[in-house]
Design goal:
single chain, mainly alpha, Heme Oxygenase, Chain A, globular
């Protein structure tokens, strides 16, 4: 039986419309791993996402104003690190030490919500990405797919919870501005960190 999706609150509908120009690019960056569906390509993809999202999560954790437990349930990069450690512990340590995405501290909750919106939007596509990779990387995914599957059953519920929280903010244009910056930063980082040079360096 199909699961009915609840209507999204108006604020998130406006946020989706305001950032629509970035959506295809963000999804393309996420699914680019399918261009090289090999264990090495998958590892590079996870490493790139880890550097970006770990720094975003670090800055989110420094921000006040989230309801108790709201943010903790959305921090996923520990699962990502576990995947990388499973695939190649020594290479994981080298890559984390060698390269890092840097992000300034968020000014306030509006900034934080814009960046959280972007990484939570990515999570909506993780189940589809897992299914697309499965025919190519069955053994690899059996060992290291915690990041892609941790919210396979509740991604939309979490999205509705985020939407309800964004509905309560008083300055939505500032959330839009932060989300715009987050989309641009994510694209720049994932494009640069998955370039051919990174492959030649073994990252």
């Amino acid at each position: 039986m199909a699961v009915a999706h609840l209507p999204r609150p108006r604020a998130v509908e406006l946020l989706e419309r305001a950032t629509a120009v970035h959506h295809a690019t963000a999804e393309g960056d996420l699914f680019r791993v399918l261009d090289e569906p090999t264990p090495a390509g998958y590892r590079r993809f996870l490493t790139s996402v880890y550097h970006f999202e770990a720094e975003v999560e670090h800055q989110l954790a420094r921000c006040t104003g989230f309801p108790p437990g709201f943010l903790a349930s959305r921090l996923k990069t520990r699962k990502l690190a576990e995947d990388l450690m499973t695939l190649d512990p020594a290479r994981y340590v080298r890559s984390v030490m060698a390269r890092r995405f840097e992000l300034a501290r968020f000014g306030d909750l509006h900034d934080a919500l814009g960046w959280l919106y972007v990484i939570e939007r990515n999570t909506l596509h993780h189940r589809q990405l897992f299914r697309a990779l499965a025919p190519h990387l069955r053994g690899t995914l059996q060992a290291a797919s915690r990041f892609l599957t941790v919210h396979a059953t509740d991604a939309y519920q979490r999205w509705h919870e985020l939407a309800a929280f964004i509905e309560r903010v008083d300055e939505l244009p500032r959330v839009v501005e932060a989300a715009d910056a987050a989309f641009r930063a994510q694209h720049a980082w994932l494009t640069a960190s998955t370039a051919p040079m990174a492959a030649r360096l073994g990252l």
